Amino acid sequence: MNNKKSSGAILGAAFLMATSAIGPGFLTQTATFTNSLGASFGFVILVSVLMAAFAQVNIWRVLCVSGLRGQDVANKVLPGLGYVLAALIVIGGLVFNIGNVGGGALGFNALLGIPNKIGYIIAAAIAILVFVMKNAKSVMDKVTKLLGGIMIVVILIVIFIVKPPVGDALKNTFVPSAAFADLRPAILTLLGGTVGGYITFAGAHRLIDAGVTGEKNLGEAKKSSITGILVAALVRVLLFLAVLGVVAKGLTLDPNVNPAADAFRQGAGEVGYRFAGLVILCAAITSIIGAAYTSVSFLKTFHHSIAEHENAWVIAFIVFSTVIMEVVGTTPAQLLVIAGAVNGLILPIALAICLIGSKKESIVGREYKHPTWLLIVGIAVVAISGYVGVTTFSSNIMKLFG
Question: 387 Cβ partners below 8 Å, 6+ apart?
Fold first, then answer.
């Protein structure tokens, strides 16, 4: 691969990871927590970004040094474990992709007034167009970068309109006024939303497909993973400031509508509402692309026919998500509860697998030495996210069947 293509893939992988994280749920979470926590949400962003970065760098290093995808590393750690991990990723990815398709319809509705039933199809069709192209992965890189850039510019415009209290936000980012008990649920929710489920593997699998593997490319992989985390964090911070500019004026977001769209409307009028539609639409389409591509990447090493017809499988994944959305009309609540609970378990499982893999010569080779400090902070993230994941899973299942 020449340097230009390699650089494009490295930046594309970063944006694929970031924009996979920046879905409709991401926007809703940020607006909702900013509404309830105010300026203290800045502290939540800081802590969750640091934890996400530690998880991401650990996983990307192991995958890129070994040249193995997540499921293959898992199978080398424990035979059969890769199939379990793949099943969790694909099921979670499918359910959240249904939500992404729904988010695309919401975006079209806010932007152009298009009915949801039509919006589902248009959003899915735009994502499918990417994988119809002969050079689909290169197009995917360009589309995610373009739409990610549009989101950043549009949110910046809204920030200039609403004029948030930046000084108060900066102070509370390091010394929050809210109680930690109120901040903890938001930290854990954001951690899962930034590197949970398929998201943590999206960029690393893209680098492997691009041939950016081996210890010689470790610097590039690290740069890509950090860039992805920073892009997602930048959008989170900008959206936080845009919403804070509204709630700091004493306004309350309407819980019966999309919180992000309502914040933009209250802060910047009808133009702001249209801007919100554009942001939601871009977030949804990039997340549809990321969820479908990454979910299929977990299947293609299990049978040669999936790898040979990868784009067709990705398109089928998107079509299936859209059909379910069209038939059901809204994302099935029970399915979302289960998927959310499972998603909370995937990060500690995936990170633990990669930390074990970092010490196995059969995975990373004889020469590679995983940094001790990264291993230690990785174990800490596994412990924290694992405890919360198990308790969340248990409580959600009890609510569902209790």
Answer: none
Domain ranges of the chain: 3-331
pTM metric for this prediction: 0.86
pLDDT in tens, 299-337: 887 888 888 888 999 999 999 999 988 887 665 445 555
CA dist., res. 290 & res. 280, Å (int): 15
What does the pLDDT look like over 206-239, one tens digit per residue?
Answer: 888 888 888 888 888 888 888 888 888 888 898 8
Residue 17's nearest CA partner among 72, 57, 46 is: 57
Instruction: Name every residue whose Cβ is closer than 8 Å to that of residue 136 and which is 6 or more positions away in sequence.
Output: 130, 311, 314
Domain 3-331 listed as CATH 3.30.420.40? no
CA 114, CA 342: separation in Å to the nearest integer?
Answer: 33
DSSP 40: G
CA distance 294 to 119: 23
SS3 state of residue 402: coil
- 87 Cβ partners below 8 Å, 6+ apart? none
| Token code pair at residue 160 | 């200039």
Q: DSSP label at 114?
A: -
What is the rounded distance in angstroms from the CA atom of residue 24 to the CA atom of residue 41?
19
- Scanning the structure block, which residue is given the tokens 């933009």? 264
Spatial separation of the C-alpha atoms in residues 220 and 7, rounded to whole Å: 9
What is the spatial distance between Cα 96 and Cα 20, in angstroms, rounded to a whole number?
11
- 19: phi then psi, degrees, rounded to nearest 5: -75, -20
- Ramachandran class of 23: left when φ > 0, alpha when ψ lies in -120 to 50, beta otherwise: beta
Distance of alpha carbon 42 from alpha carbon 194, whole angstroms: 15
Cα 152 from Cα 136, distance rounded (Å) = 24
Token readout for 316 is 């089928």
Task: Round to whole Å and give the CA distance between 297 and 69.
Answer: 8
State the sign of the Cα–Cα–Cα–Cα dihedral 35, 36, 42, 45: negative
Angle ∠(223,229,235) on CA atoms, nearest 5 = 130
